Amino acid sequence: VQLQESGPGLVKPSQTLSVICTVSGASITTSHYHWTWIRQPPGKGLEWMGVMDYEGTLDYNPSFKSRTTISRDTVKNQFSLELTSVTPEDTAIYYCNLDQFWGQGTQVVVPA
Whole-number mean pLDDT of the chain? Predict the structure, then answer.
């Protein structure tokens, strides 16, 4: 399984951050698979943001829930993350994940 994130690189404060994970080697509708978004701010640990399972059922980190939407495109075999009203504290490397499989991450910067 391979995961590849893509993102905007730079997002202005108060705007919406959108990152996409393109999956190959497995279908995002494969039974019992859970597709996760995780981020790592500079100098900090990993933060679990949310997960979508193979049926499209969602669960979000309460810390981000009001600002986060995870969705999927089963035709393109992609799942995505949107984070609204971003601030510089949302600067991070954003990763998509399936169990032991990780993308390489995409850096998103929100300038002060």
Answer: 96
